[in-house]
Amino acid sequence: MQQVRFQDLGNRDYQEIWEYQEKLLKENVEIKAAASWKQERGPFPELAHAAVETVHHLLLVEHPPVYTLGKSGKEENLLLNKEQLQQKGFGYYRINRGGDITFHGPGQIVGYPVLDLEKFYTDLGRYLRSLEEVIILTMADYGLKGERSPGETGVWMDATIKGRERKICAMGIRCSRWITMHGFAFNVNTNLDYFSYIIPCGIQDKQVTSLEKELGRKVDLEDVKNKLKKHFEHVFQVQLV
Questions:
Q1: Exposed site from 9, 81, 159, 213, fewest CB < 10 Å?
Q2: Of these residues, 59, 78, 201, 221, which one is catalytic?
Q3: What's the mean per-residue pLDDT of the chain?
Q4: What are the beta bridge partners of residue 238?
């Protein structure tokens, strides 16, 4: 069973953790590049892949209020200008993940897996479905039915009922040489008013929700994290260390 290094980073600045992810990704990419060089020149190229010592990571974190726009996102989906962002004390970053605009903030669990998918499967669609499954299983522990929405990433509730669709977990990733970064944003006790300043994920006429809203009570973040960790281990067949 593969091991994944787990870190609960608490409440940290978005830029700091983005740079930390980039560092972890770069380290793994350099390890793979060195292994490729050895494979091209070594006497046993068929053994080179087995010797690639990339390191898997899972980071969980909360961020101060911040909006992030994916590389294919549209600026007009942010409904505030720079002056308004500054006045309200909100951060804003255009970043290198897929997807459109989303919000990170207090009461939301953000997960950043840095995985070498060549040690799992080289299929980004399957990887995203696996991340969704981790959230769906966690929601089931609270008696809630998480669903996938056809043609959209993330986890929803009532995904196929017109007018009732509501997103509880947004997802967006980057992948370089099959090393992943970025990940998921799971609304637990999130103040949903923050989403009124954006068109979430660039999707018109659909709502956003949280565990707190669906259950009608605050939810213990540590309890949610423990459930996420358990289901991550199950879905990816790994051990968090």
A1: 81
A2: 201
A3: 92
A4: 2
Domain encompassing residue 8: 2-240
The question of whether 201 is a catalytic residue gets the answer yes
Which of the four pLDDT bands, split at 50, 70 and 90, describes residue 99? confident
State the amino acid at position 169 in one-letter form. C
Measured in degrees and rounded to the nearest 5, phi and psi for residue 147 equal -135, 160
Contact 200, 153 (CB under 8 A): no
Cβ atoms 169, 200 nearer than 8 A: no
pLDDT at 38: 57
- Which residue has tokens 């994916």? 70
Give the CATH number for residue 88: 3.30.930.10
Residue linked to tokens 């050895």: 38
Total count of domains within the chain: 1
Which amino acid type is present at position 193? D
| Residue labelled with tokens 């605009």 | 101
pLDDT digit string, tens, across residues 160-218:
999 999 999 999 999 999 999 999 999 999 999 999 999 876 667 779 999 999 999 99
Q: What is the b/e burial string over 71-99, where b = at least 16 CB atoms within 10 angstroms of the residue's CB?
A: eebeeebbeeeeeebeeeebbbeebebbb
- Global model pTM greater than 0.90: yes
